[in-house]
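Let us practice reading a record.
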Amino acid sequence: MRTGTGIKERNMGVELLRIVSMLMVAAVHILGQGGVLAGVSAAPQTAGYAAAYLLESCCLLACNSYALVSGYVGAEGHFRYARLFETQVRVLFYTVLITAGFCIAMPELFGFTLIKNALFPAMTGQYWYYTAYFGLMLFMPALQCMIAHLDRVQFRNLIVSIIVLFSVMPALFVSDIFQTAQGYSLWWLVALYLVGAYIKKYGCPFLKKPLPALAVYALSILAAWGIQLAEAYGVGIPLPNMLVFTSPAMLLGSVALLVAFSGFRLPDPVKKAVSLCAPLSFSVYLIHVHPLVWRYLFEGRFAAFADYPAYGMVCAAIAAAAAIYVCCTLIDAVRAWLFRICRVRTGCEWLEERLKSLFEGRGGV
């Protein structure tokens, strides 16, 4: 969207989806790494099991949604390497600071591997999503060029191919045929980036309005949940697992969420809150999924929720996810203030210009 002055304006509904997606990510981690799903799995034919997996079905597509937003926002943008540099500095800020804090508190952890992991988070796979996203950022200039030059039919055929090859066929044959690691990979993020870009340029052919899109989202998660419950009750019909990123249910649900949120019209006070919080959302992931935080502060800490009544367990998991989001956002607000004081963005832009002039001065690479 552009204002009357020609200045590009963010779609605040899509920015709100960044926030909601990160809340969902925290909820999924509470259920999985936090120990809730392991607890309810001891009694699979109970209300607690059904409630836990309903929440899992609702939230698992969050990573898909976050990647779709990247494509939606980046479809008509101009990639700058300064953005890559700033993201890397942001990640290093947390990997180094958190690692140093743990080493002070637990000196026995200190070692070469820990230092290497802190200094080279993308190359050592400290965060699977950031490692994949780092590769995606390097591909973005070429992807944006391709997006700009494909006509509608060519782009549509590419998206159909992506959906069939990376989502439908693996589900039908119950096999990771094209090595997407069920979505934990660079290739899946590239695929989602292109899908998000197509939706930005041409919309979704079968979804136009927020309410029908939310209905499709609901049907998608109910399908994934129903298959999970069918397996728990020992139904003899072989059914594909829909609770993976690449499944048709999770892909369709995440697309429906993007369409729904892109059509939301938010009141001004909500827009202001979203504009403040959305840029900080990625750090919620960086903080609570840091390997040391993950291992020593997160793993199994929410297992007691599995003993709550079904409604209490769901409410507790959502409340804990909200608490994680709020705490990490407040921490990142301090980080953002420090970056402004230290003019990190200006430094990254200066580095980009220096590298550009260096390469151009040598005739390019």
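A brief commentary: The chain has one domain: 12-359.
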